[in-house]
């Protein structure tokens, strides 16, 4: 189970993802589609915390298998 509430991703002072909510049950598969530059890769990187020091990830809730990862 993945549950994210109010995800915001910043690069330096620029907000790149705004107020994203997402949940997915165990055993499910999803596809993420969108135009080039719409934030698909940024969202995926936020799930695995794959950012350099200039990025900040903030969320009201960010849990995987009910374990808070922020």
Low-pLDDT runs of 5+ residues are: none
The largest β sheet comes out as: 5 strands, antiparallel
The overall number of domains is 1
Average pLDDT rating? 89
Percent of sequence in beta strands: 35-45%
Structure, described:
It contains 1 helix and 5 strands. The longest helix has 9 residues, at 40-48. Strands 1, 2, 3, 4 and 5 form a 5-stranded antiparallel beta sheet that branches. It has one domain. The model has no long low-confidence stretch (mean pLDDT 89). The protein has one helix spanning 40-48; strands spanning 2-11, 14-24, 55-58, 61-64, 67-68. The two termini are 16 Å apart. By secondary structure, it is mainly beta. 13% of the residues lie in helices and 44% in strands.
List the defining traits of the structure above.
70 residues, single chain, 13% helix, mainly beta, five-stranded antiparallel β-sheet
Write a short abstract of this structure.
With 70 residues, the protein is mostly beta strands. It contains 1 helix and 5 strands; from the N terminus they run ββαβββ.
SSE diagram, text form:
Layout: E1 2-11, E2 14-24, H1 40-48, E3 55-58, E4 61-64, E5 67-68
Antiparallel strand pairs: 1-2, 1-3, 1-4, 4-5
């Amino acid at each position: 189970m993945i549950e994210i509430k109010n995800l915001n991703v910043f690069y330096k002072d620029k907000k790149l993802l705004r107020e994203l909510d997402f949940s997915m049950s165990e055993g499910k598969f999803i596809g993420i589609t969108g135009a080039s530059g719409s934030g698909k890769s940024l969202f995926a990187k936020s799930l695995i915390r794959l950012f350099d020091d200039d990025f900040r990830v903030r969320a009201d809730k960010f849990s995987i298998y009910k374990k808070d990862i922020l």
